[in-house]
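Problem 12. The chain below contains 337 residues. Write out its predicted structure in token notation.
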Amino acid sequence: MANVGVMGAGSWGTALALLLHKNGHRVTVWSVSQEEVDMLAGEREHKTKLPGVKIPEDMEFTTEMEAGVRGKDFLVLAVPSPFTRNTARNMKQYVVDGQIIVDVAKGIEEETLMTLSQQIEEEIPQADVAVLSGPSHAEEVGRGLPTTVVIGARSRKTASYLQEMFMNDVFRVYISPDRLGMELGGSLKNVIALAAGIADGMGYGDNTKAALITRGIAEIARLGVKMGGALESFTGLTGIGDLIVTCASVHSRNRKAGYLMGQGKTMQEAMDEVKMVVEGVYSTKAAVKLGKKYDVSLPIINKVNEILFEGKDPKEAVNELMLRDSKTEHMGVPWTE
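Solution.
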């Protein structure tokens, strides 16, 4: 049995806390919100984000950072990506050398273009930072539905340890050394999911969504490989797998926000209605900057950026994508004649 601290009591943090508790670990969940802690401790249910999912009586909740971090065998950092750096900074004084931190959010910092694990390592250099990613909506993990993810870490030893801690009969865990590829896939798929949602909101069909998914993963992989990620990460669970579920699922906050924008709402109106952090919005500008930095063509991501931040009409963006210069699909596949 491990002693685990889950930092963040949103839907994903709560779902993973329940999973780890089911696996026999002692779990303490930290939240910055006293109101949230009181609800979870009193109601034994996250009424707003995981309604109907009961929380065991012996799971502990706290707003005290030290209580959430100190003495834990490993930590799960589950705050939304815009708050990762500041939360890590506040955790630093309580983290001991070699303590494992598993980041489970997805995003890229616009100002520095750092992934979340890079931000954590910069703020807490003494930590052993891993990542968990893959097609895994909290609403389904919380209900115990079969799910498969990947854990990435610097060392096989850390990855294998965490694999054992998280894995059970409904939560299958693979391991990978490619944290960068995993994080880029997990972050950039949220931008493509916004595009898929916009297309759905405009009344486009399955053909359109299939095109966005397949050409979207092509963009993500082009950039990711250029940055040093492994192609396999983008063709697996943390790439195309996560992209498919985020573009198609009713649980996807990014798809939902895009859908609302496709129906005519502004970005802010859509985010307000979703009532959760829409991480794709925060990753879009960073993705555009990365494309320019590494000289990689990102036509879909660039159009999403124009819709979000430059007032581009979605129908005009679609027309511009469709009327680009004709190309071959795979530049690396040679003609025989």
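Discussion. Strands lie at 3-7, 26-30, 45-46, 50-54, 60-62, 74-77, 100-103, 128-133, 147-152, 171-176. Students who got a different answer should revisit the alignment rule from Section 12.3.
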